[in-house]
């Protein structure tokens, strides 16, 4: 795992220290964590009911805290982009306007999760958040916060829902409180990720097949372009609308049900942009299924080729890449021993993911590094530097309760 990123134990220790400092009381009674993710392939397919292939990361959001006797909630966070810890206070008399989205933005994730928690009403609590998932880096910092918070609430007041409904509740929080009409991928893998595996998720049936990913000869390199992305802008919702429009013109419930033949036959009823968006989704769903099969067979070259096709499609047809991501992918592909590389996550910045032979890792990093020196200097507070090498134990795990003793 990337040596420069704090371990879960270090994050918990930092969060505990802050808790005692801010609240002047004994150590918190509960600690939980939930991972960020990297998506290997299957981009912008989840809200089209297609397939995705993410894996949980050893980068996590930790929440520590304790229940209080009243209805007051105080949450403190000490993450990257602020010098001082930030704090939000509200009370939960009747689940009224206290939970409406507002400022500060980061607190909306907490409010959203309380709003959609499946065993209301939740009691008052004090909590501290700490995270090693870079904010706006396309590694799912928001889903890891939502899922960590949901897991925290489960320790205060257990719910009787299953894991999938937990992921769905967290996805709803993102919709209503962060304003992002996201699919289910990020929350799903944060709840159900499995160590040593990627998950092939069918976003229609919500069934997942673990795909082993523990070959010691293989490395997954995540490279942060340090171009901050924000999915709350108009681009992500617009892509989703374009897909829904395409599906409706094709007479399908979703693009999952459409084929390239359907698209060609409907060509004169679709404008050019909508047609390109639909083509990306239809082909990406198919690519993802083939890629998962290739990974199972250890056919890494084939997998890598599909990764590059995915990137090119996201760049040219879906138009969610950016110059920095394209350059990082091109540079990675110049190195011998690299199987494939692509942007990962929603796009418009964030990270690339590269699959390569373990022995090629140092020369790959050396080759990529000069591309983003100004970004890395400008972002020194980022817990993860531009190049993160998940060489050992590179997959994460599902959200879980941690032992505080
Ligand atoms: C973001 C969203 F949150 C996901 O649901 C998914 O659509 C992804 O972008 C693109 O594949 O991470």
UniProtKB/TrEMBL annotation:
Domain of life: Eukaryota
Ranges in coiled-coil conformation: 256-302
GO cellular component, one term: cytosol
UniProt entry tagged with the keyword Glycoprotein: no
GO biological process, one term: protein ubiquitination
Molecular function terms from GO: ATP binding; galactokinase activity; metal ion binding
Keywords recorded for this protein, A-Z: ATP-binding, Carbohydrate metabolism, Coiled coil, Growth regulation, Kinase, Magnesium, Metal-binding, Nucleotide-binding, Transferase
UniProt keyword Amino-acid biosynthesis, yes or no: no
Family, per entry: Belongs to the GHMP kinase family. GalK subfamily.
Name the UniProt record assigns to this protein: BTB domain-containing protein
Classification of source organism: Eukaryota, Metazoa, Chordata, Craniata, Vertebrata
Shown residues in whole-protein numbering: 1 to 405 of 692
């Amino acid at each position: 795992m990337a040596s420069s990123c704090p371990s879960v134990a270090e994050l918990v220790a930092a969060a505990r220290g802050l808790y005692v400092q801010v609240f002047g009381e004994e150590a918190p009674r509960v600690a939980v964590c939930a991972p960020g993710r990297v998506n290997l392939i299957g981009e912008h397919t989840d809200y089209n009911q297609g397939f995705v292939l993410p894996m949980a990361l050893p980068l996590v959001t930790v929440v520590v805290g304790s229940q209080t006797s009243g209805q007051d909630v105080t949450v403190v966070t000490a993450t990257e982009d602020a010098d001082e810890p930030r704090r939000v206070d509200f009370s939960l008399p009747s689940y009224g306007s206290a939970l409406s989205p507002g400022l500060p933005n980061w607190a909306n994730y907490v409010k959203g999760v309380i709003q959609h928690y499946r065993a209301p009403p939740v009691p008052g609590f004090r909590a501290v958040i700490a995270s090693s998932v870079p904010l706006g880096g396309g590694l799912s910092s928001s889903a890891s916060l939502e899922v960590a918070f949901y897991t925290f609430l489960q320790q205060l007041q257990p719910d009787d829902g299953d894991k999938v409904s937990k992921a769905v509740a967290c996805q709803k929080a993102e919709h209503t409180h962060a304003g992002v009409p996201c699919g289910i991928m990020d929350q799903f893998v944060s709840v159900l990720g499995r160590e040593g595996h990627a998950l092939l998720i069918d976003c229609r049936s919500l069934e997942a097949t673990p795909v082993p990913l523990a070959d010691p000869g293989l490395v997954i390199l995540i490279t942060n372009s340090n171009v901050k992305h924000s999915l709350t802008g108009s681009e992500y919702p617009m892509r989703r609308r374009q897909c829904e429009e395409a599906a409706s013109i094709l007479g399908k419930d979703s693009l999952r049900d459409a084929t390239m033949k359907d698209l060609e036959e409907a060509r004169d009823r679709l404008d050019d942009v909508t047609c390109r968006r639909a083509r990306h989704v239809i082909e990406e769903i198919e690519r993802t299924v083939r890629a998962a099969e290739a990974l199972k067979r250890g056919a890494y070259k084939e997998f890598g080729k599909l990764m590059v096709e995915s990137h090119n499609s996201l760049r040219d047809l879906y138009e969610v890449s950016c110059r920095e991501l394209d350059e990082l992918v091109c540079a990675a592909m110049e190195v011998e021993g690299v199987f494939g590389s692509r942007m990962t996550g929603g796009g418009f910045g964030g990270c690339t993911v590269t699959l390569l032979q373990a022995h090629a890792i140092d020369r790959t990093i050396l080759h990529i590094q000069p591309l983003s020196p100004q970004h890395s200097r400008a972002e020194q507070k980022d817990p993860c530097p531009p190049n993160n090498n998940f060489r050992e134990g590179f997959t994460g795990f599902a959200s879980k309760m941690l032992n505080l003793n």
